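Friendly challenge for the regulars: who can give me the C-alpha cells for this chain first? No prize, just bragging rights.
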Amino acid sequence: MSFRWYGNKLDKIPLRYIRQIPGMKNVVSAIYHIPVGKVWPYEDILELKNEIEAAGLMFKTVESVNVHEDIKLGLPTRDRYIENYCLTLKNLAKAGVEVVCYNFMPVFDWTRTELAKTLPDGSTALFYDEKVIKDLEPTKLVEDMEKGSNGFELPGWEKGRLAAIKKLFDLYQDINEEKLFANLKYFLEGIIPTAEECGIKMAIHPDDPPWSVFGLPRIVTSKANLERVVKLVDSPANGLALCSGSLGANPNNNVPEIFGHFAKMGRLHFAHVRNIKIYEPGVFSETAHKADDSSLDMYAIMKALYEAGFTGPLRPDHGRMIWDEVGMPGYGLYDRALGAVYLYGLWDSIARCTKDAGTSV
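First reply, four minutes later:
Bragging rights claimed.
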C-alpha cells in the first residue's frame, strides 16, 4: 500500500502522518526541483530515500519521471533527452527504486475544469465537464488551475513548461495518434534496454481523461491501445500503471477486466485505485472510494488484482477534501487515508473469503 508525497518543500503532509495510516508501507515520490529533461542527481535521490526511510517507510516507486515534450513531438533533440532519461533510471536503480511511473500525454497532464466541486455531502472534489472544455481557451484553463490550486504547484501543471503553451499547441498541429504512437515506440526502444539492465519496471499511466482534449492526440485510453503499448517493445520492463479513475471515465472501459488482464500478463507494475461518479458522458467527478452512487466497483477491481496475484505497489490516488482540510486539490491527507484503509479492508476480506489471508498488498 502506497501514498504519494511531494516532499517536505511542496507537501504540507508530514511523513509521520503517512506512517500512521494503517498498513501504509511505501511512499511514492519524485525529485521536483530538477527541470524536465535534466538528469536526476543520485545525491538528490539518496537524500529523498533516506528521509522517507527514516520515517519508517519504503521508497521503491517513483511518480513521475516526466517525459520531455521534444520526445513526444519526435524532434531531433529527443535523443539527448532520452539519454538523460536513461541516466536518471540508472541513478534511481542505484538507490533501490523498482518502479517508475510516467505518462505520454501531450502538453497537459491530468485535466479538470474545476478543482473544488462541492459534492452533496459537503466535501469538494476534482471535476471535469467536457462542455466547459469545448468553450474554453487552453490559456484560460491554465489560469483557472493556478487560481484554484490553494497556492500549490499542481503535478503536471508546472508554470515554466505551460508558459509556452501557445508554442506547444503549434508544434502539435501535425501530430496525430499514429505519430504519437511512433514517438512513444522510439522512446521505449531508447529506454527499455536500460530499464532491463538496471532492474526497473517502467509503468505508463493512462491518459486522464481517456480522450482527446483541445484536439490534442491521446493514445493510452483503452484496452486495445494498452495492448498496443506493451507490444511496442515486448519486454517485462515495459508495463503499465493502470488507474481506475482515468480509464473508468469512459464507461466503455471495463476496468476490473482490464486490471485483471494486464496483471495476469505480468505487465501491471503499479495500480491506482480510485472511484468516480459519471453524471453524463464527458462529465464526472472524483468521489469517495465507498460511495453508493459511484460509477466504479472497487470490490471487483480489488478482486481482479487479488485473483491475478498482483504484488506491486498500489495507491488510493486522488481524494476529496473533507473535514475542512486545506491542501493540494486531490491530494489531502484524510480522504486518501480513508481510501487506503477501505482498499485494505476489501483486500483482507477477499483473502479471507478465499481462505488465503496470508497475502497482503
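The longest strand covers residues 58-63. The CA atoms of residues 107 and 161 lie 9 Å apart. Your move, everyone else.
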